[in-house]
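Saturday, quiet lab. Running sequence design on the structure tokens for the scaffold JK sent over.
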């Protein structure tokens, strides 16, 4: 069982990219976002994030299978960088959030999400915005030998 805590997340400026597709595109999107941010000499001040807009594991599975999952990746930055047709800068809202850590391959995170959703329900909490996945390692290489 994963430890779940409630934290008070501060708002943060991010550079982000959003599109419809399959979740397997997250690593590619993050690489593209980082490439652009670095070309603009962005000062990155935190771990990259994936914003999970679907509200349940079942909804996410259906959206991914159909290729219309709402995929958004972002990276916290110190100050705005130039925007283009794919990347924009905005303030990601803060607030009280449930936090847990998944340890293991990305392909096996479903059980961590199920524990989180069960915990939210048992503790009378509701999801009111996108779920955030923060990456402390590289999702394109994690678990590879």
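Result came back. Writing it out in full:
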């Amino acid at each position: 069982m994963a430890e779940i805590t409630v934290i008070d997340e501060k708002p943060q400026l991010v550079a982000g990219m959003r599109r419809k597709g399959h979740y397997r595109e997250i690593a590619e999107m993050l690489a593209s976002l980082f490439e652009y941010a670095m070309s603009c000499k962005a000062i990155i001040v935190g771990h990259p994030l994936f914003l999970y807009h679907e509200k349940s594991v079942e909804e996410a599975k259906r959206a991914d299978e159909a290729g219309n999952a709402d995929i958004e990746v972002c990276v916290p930055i110190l100050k705005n960088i130039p925007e283009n047709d794919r990347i924009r800068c905005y303030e990601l809202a803060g607030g009280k959030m449930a936090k847990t850590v998944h340890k293991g391959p990305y392909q096996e995170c479903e059980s961590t999400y199920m524990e989180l959703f069960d915990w939210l329900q048992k503790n009378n909490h509701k999801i009111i915005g996108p779920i955030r996945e923060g990456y402390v390692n590289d999702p394109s290489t994690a678990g590879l030998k």
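Notes for JK: Residues 26-39 form the longest helix (14 residues). The chain has a mean pLDDT of 89. Ask whether to fix the surface positions before the next round.
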